[in-house]
Amino acid sequence: MFTNDPAGHIPKCPEGCGRAHPAATSPAPLSDYEGSFLTLLLRCQPATAYQLLKVSTQSPFGRLNQSKGSLYPLTRRLIARGLIKADRICGDGRKARLLTCTAAGGEAVRIWALRIDDLCALPDDLLFAKASALDRLDATEQRDWVAAARDMMTRRMAELTLGHERFGASIPDIAYAGAMLGLRGRLDWLELLSRRMSLSGAPLPLSRAG
Asked: What domain range is 173 assigned to?
């Protein structure tokens, strides 16, 4: 077995040759959730899981699961893999730990960022999935759906702007700009739906009549 250096360096060959073994330098790839978590940690470290949860609500990286308890299994896995380390906070009765990314964790993020796949072009999107069921709604329900979606997009844009102003380096300009462009694009799409509904005065069909 290869062992991780406590400081988070690349694992060394157990034969004692002092060189990084090829197998040790190719850790299991990060899932997108793990990659997003570690990227946020790299920009905020040192930070507790709760602090990361708060920042993620105003971050373009995608929200972490909104339960602190759900982060504990994730952090335990990443600690076991030598990608993060956790230090106790002296005098903290809640037993919170300060998390930092190790050198191996930083390298894992680099490899994850290089991986471009189909989900990067068109990620899973609940809004578009629900839009595919709009023909199940009557005209009033469709208009209410569009109005609710527009309100949600507007709130999210306000959250991102506030987070960008509050957390500075934790949310890089390029990520903020990309997220805002994506939200504005959704608002434009919702505006198009709204105009079509106004013109038809009837439930919006989702496909052309054959």
From this structure: 125-200
